[in-house]
């Protein structure tokens, strides 16, 4: 069973106003509505211990408040859709050979546990699939059956934490073109729309945390990662206009949340927007 392209777009909350949504690689083929869509997966968000889980299953059908998956029907609030082409879980404890000190890395597994020290101590946190950090140190294995550890940060002010290297993969994001691009953020509908010149390219829901001041601003900075391993951060002018970032810890897009970026997007949408909007792009907050 597979979703057609229209159902796929509906499942991830994106409406494309053009035949091809080019910033999102998964849709670059621009197939007909009846053609099979890229496979969509559901990643379970929490278990009874309030920790991110490692369960991932294909989505077979989409309902208003739930998904039908290979593991049964599950409420949308308990899972987050991810693109199958972006999901490359580790096949062994051997890390990606391209992980090096200074590299930008993302969680390739369903989640990655964080530790204060390698090899010892308890878990101090978890980063979900798609979370991004930067490697500042590498601890090779003590024997062939040990794992490689990496020390990662999400900003320069953060104290490094340790994680198992094979759960992460190196990442290079595309750079936006210098074309005339802009963004409209509708705070009432909690939906944003990206434009190229005067043509709407795509529209997607976001989760809001706090109020955004209406007005006109621009993208003032771009950062692959921000405090809390939040991926694809776009700063919008002064602090009153907030910032945009990806969220790997919930599936409340289109609603309100209590903390994090003022504008929160699913990982795949955040990456598409990050690769679409350059610094200086106009942003209109309604």
Protein topology:
Elements: H1 5-11, E1 15-16, E2 40-44, E3 56-62, E4 66-69, E5 72-75, E6 79-83, E7 104-107, E8 111-115, E9 123-128, E10 132-139, E11 149-153, E12 161-164, E13 168-170, E14 181-186, E15 191-196, E16 199-205, E17 207-208, E18 215-226, E19 230-236, E20 243-246, E21 263-265, H2 267-276, E22 282-285
Parallel strand pairs: 14-22, 20-21
Antiparallel strand pairs: 1-16, 2-3, 2-6, 3-4, 4-5, 7-10, 7-13, 8-9, 10-11, 11-12, 14-15, 15-16, 17-21, 18-19, 18-22, 19-20
Describe the model.
This protein has 286 residues and is mainly β. It contains 2 helices and 22 strands. It has helices spanning 5-11, 267-276, and strands at 15-16, 40-44, 56-62, 66-69, 72-75, 79-83, 104-107, 111-115, 123-128, 132-139, 149-153, 161-164, 168-170, 181-186, 191-196, 199-205, 207-208, 215-226, 230-236, 243-246, 263-265, 282-285. The strands form 4 sheets. It has a 10-stranded mixed beta sheet with strand order 1-16-15-14-22-18-19-20-21-17, covered by helices on one side. A hairpin with a 3-residue loop joins strand 3 (56-62) and strand 4. The longest helix has 10 residues, at 267-276. The protein is globular. The model is unreliable at 1-9 and 15-38 (pLDDT under 50).
What key phrases describe this protein's structure?
286 residues, mainly beta, ten-stranded mixed β-sheet, five-stranded antiparallel β-sheet, 2 helices, 40% strand, globular
